[in-house]
Amino acid sequence: MAHTEETSDQFAILPIEIPGTSSYPETAIHEVRVRRNAPKIPTANDSRSLFLKNIPADSTGPHFRGVFTELVGAGRFESITFEDETKTSLTIDPAAATKVTALTRKRKHGEAEEEERAREEQALQLPQIWSRRLQRSSSTAVVLLADEKSVQQVLKAITKVHKSKKYPSWGSNLADEVPALGSAWIASHLQLSRVDKQATQKAVHAFFNAFNRKEKEAVELSKRLRNEPDDDGFVTVVRGGRVAPASRNEAEEAKRKMYERDTKKKSETQDFYRFQLREKRKAEQAVLLSRFEEDRRKVNAMRQQRGKFRPET
């Protein structure tokens, strides 16, 4: 089947030559789809990023560094972020209510709090039990290049690859950068699974400390949300008190209502100021019109006096 330069969804197809292995001694061609990165939420690096689709399952940063080096030379590839790439830390989300804290809580404590949060995140890191991560089938990634010119060069190089049929080789010149797969990979996993007891216990304790803090914040937030008046200004009164955090649905609903109320208030305020601006413009126009009429009367008077003017001799 002939390779095409572009598909209907504007992806350029980058063929990569996968060398044979002992289990499958045949060379294969894997097609990675490439286009300019255009996420729903723009970032500062979008102009020098590429979105990759259908990457190989054994993809790593050194693998793609080698591919892009073959395409456009060294120094263009900067980094790659794989789909669902997360840290091996324990997730803290007691009831999802803390998702709205960013909208309702002011920035506080400055750099000291940021450093404390960074130390907390570091303490939550669990020991690594895999020497190398595998990607799920047909997953995606975002490649960050040196500049926008590098993006153009890569896309042009992909076009040339289709004409020359000289595809970049997968995994060439990796040396010892990437741990080997197979039995050695499994043996390494079994060894790493015997984690240090003290290190694991320390991470678990840090998790519960952070979890309790997040839960307390969620409780305080849920109480405040229940005391928020509705659109008519009424507050729902419930019997007793609830100490548990708000549920996910309640938190999301409260978040939506707060956003709608804030938008409505902002719109009303903007309309009020627009009314003031309109009145101000009308007053300024009236002043300009009166000045124009006065100037026109002066010009007409000067025209009438033109024939009677006699210069001094």
From TrEMBL:
Region (Disordered): 247-267
Compositional bias per record (Basic and acidic residues), positions renumbered to this chain: 249-267
Any one cellular-component term (Gene Ontology): CURI complex
Occurrences of domain Rrp7 RRM-like N-terminal (ranges): 11-184
Example GO biological process: rRNA processing
TM regions (residue ranges): none
Residue ranges of domain Ribosomal RNA-processing protein 7 C-terminal in the record: 193-312
InterPro entries found in the cross-reference section: RRM_Rrp7, RRP7, RRP7_C
The family this protein is said to belong to: Belongs to the RRP7 family.
Name of the protein in question: Ribosomal RNA-processing protein 7
